[in-house]
Design goal:
Blueprint lengths: L15 E18 L5 E20 L4 E5 L13 H13 L7 E6 L10 H16 L6 H11 L3 H6 L3 E4 L4 E4 L7 E6 L6 H6 L18 H9 L6 H7 L2 H11 L4 E4 L6 E5 L2 H14 L4 E6 L9 E2 L1
Parallel strand pairs: 3-4
Antiparallel strand pairs: 1-2, 2-4, 2-5, 5-6, 6-11, 7-9, 7-10, 8-9
Helix pairs in contact: 1-2, 1-3
Length: 308
């Protein structure tokens, strides 16, 4: 994720600006149900160069401002995950070390759409505030705070190609994973995650197969054909438009198409970014009221990192 560097000698109003990327679950297997109520999953996820934007700076009082295409759907009270993240980090740091901040969100991703928008926003806010408040906090502590807010937060804090296990809190990043050209499509419907999980026909599915030794576009496609999103059938029963979104991607010559997360956003994979852009233009022309975005995913960093 990108951010502005903070000069230790700069004024308190220096801005920390960060991308909150979309999270795309390329595969998602539901493998069980824990005693605490969380479902166990195995998921391969990537993060895109398109997403929301978070900016934060110190202020005389806490403020929260939302703009962007989907601003009208974002709550601005204490139910907002960004504000929950701010408050959780402030409690962890001790309020005297966490003075008032102004946070602004540019909401470019659809709300409740299966691409981790709210979780990614909160993760970006945690990192921005830790920087502004100059907190001595490590990755494990941030991940623990994140998981207390939602199962997707640890993944969104990492924001690079990864495998998630457990309820989503056990993560291993994937080395040498390439950037992918992709198109995200949302047909303008929201699907409640809880409703999708309640509608599952089965909760004890098999785990993901091992990833190929060498991951490129074609070996990844072969691997994906042996995987699923176990939430997709239930979500499509709730909202049949999901199937139409996936079909639109295949009609636009996606090499592979699937729903992400609990829906209703679907993604299509394309061999190059230019092919993805042409496909997005074609889908947008047929469905001008849908959310359609062509982008690229972020490639992995060099070393594999694990934390739980």
């Amino acid at each position: 994720m990108s951010s502005t560097a903070l000069d230790p000698e700069s004024a308190d109003h220096a801005v920390d600006a960060r991308l909150a990327p979309a999270k795309v679950n390329l595969a998602l297997h539901v493998t069980g149900l824990r005693a605490d109520g969380f479902h166990t999953i195995e998921s391969l996820a990537v993060f895109t160069r398109f997403g929301d934007r978070i900016e934060a700076h110190r202020a005389d009082e806490d403020r929260f401002i939302v703009s962007g295409r989907f601003a009208g759907l974002v709550p601005t009270d204490e139910t907002n995950l960004i504000l929950k993240a701010r408050d959780a980090l402030r409690r962890h740091a001790d309020p005297k070390n966490a003075p008032a901040v102004a946070i602004s969100l540019e909401k470019n991703l659809p709300v409740a759409s299966g691409i981790g928008g709210g979780s990614s926003d909160a993760a970006a806010a945690l990192r921005a505030l830790a920087s502004i408040w100059k907190l001595d906090i490590d990755e494990m502590e941030l991940a623990q705070i994140g998981f207390s807010l939602g199962a997707d937060l640890p993944m969104c804090l990492k924001a690079q190609p990864l495998l998630a296990h457990g309820a989503g809190e056990t993560i291993s990043t994937v080395a040498k994973f390439p950037a992918l050209g992709l198109v995200m499509v949302n047909p303008g419907v929201t699907v409640a995650t809880a409703d999708v999980f309640r509608s599952l026909a089965r909760r004890d599915n098999e785990v993901l197969p091992p990833l190929p030794d060498v991951i490129d576009f074609h070996s990844l496609l072969d691997w994906l054909e042996a995987t699923r999103n176990d939430l997709e059938p239930a979500a499509e029963t709730i909202s049949p438009l999901i199937g139409k979104a996936r079909a639109a991607l295949l009609r636009a010559d996606a090499a592979f198409a699937r729903m992400s997360g609990s829906g209703a956003t679907c993604f299509g994979l394309f061999e190059t970014g230019n092919v993805a852009k042409r496909a997005a233009a074609s889908i947008r022309a047929r469905h001008p009221d849908w959310f359609v975005a062509a982008t690229r995913s972020m490639a992995s960093e060099v070393h594999e990192v694990e934390y739980a």
